[in-house]
Predict the structure.
Amino acid sequence: IGASFKLFAGTPKDLPPVLFELGLEIDLVFRLAIGVELSIVSLALLRPAIGWRLLALQYVIFLGLLVQLQASGAESCGCMGSSVTLTPLNMMAIDGVLLALLLLSKPWQRALTSCGPGWLAPAAVLLFMAFPWVYIDAGSATPAPAPAETGDQAPAAVTEKPRYVVLEPEERVRSEEHTSE
């Protein structure tokens, strides 16, 4: 659910601050985070013997990030993008209960059967890893408003308008300092 909120209404600024320190372009991290979350869900559904382990690991990582956010005094975890505000403590409760329920079901003691043909799970992973790039990029070209009908004006052109812009103020400051020398 969180990946869907981030994909359809979120921006990279919704990610936990620790992800900004990875040394990677934050837009790449944003898209990878969404793709990985969606892929893990597809594996949990299609290949539960593998997927439950990844799902449990994902919850442990989420809980670690949430503890860090709570300790830093963050007001929102950003788990659901900017459209839904949840405190880190509330999200810890949700993720903690979900992890506990997953582990209480003792999936390691069950014969978990796969769903669908063998090619479906890898195809779903590829699809969900690619989807954030396709969806976010597809939303960047929007038609400009049409001019008022006043005769022989040309039709409105397509204006490139990104869904969000990632600003790098540190980069700009370094660039300005370098050019002023």
In short: The chain has a mean pLDDT of 84. The longest strand covers residues 141-143. The radius of gyration is 21 Å. DSSP finds six helices and two strands in the chain.
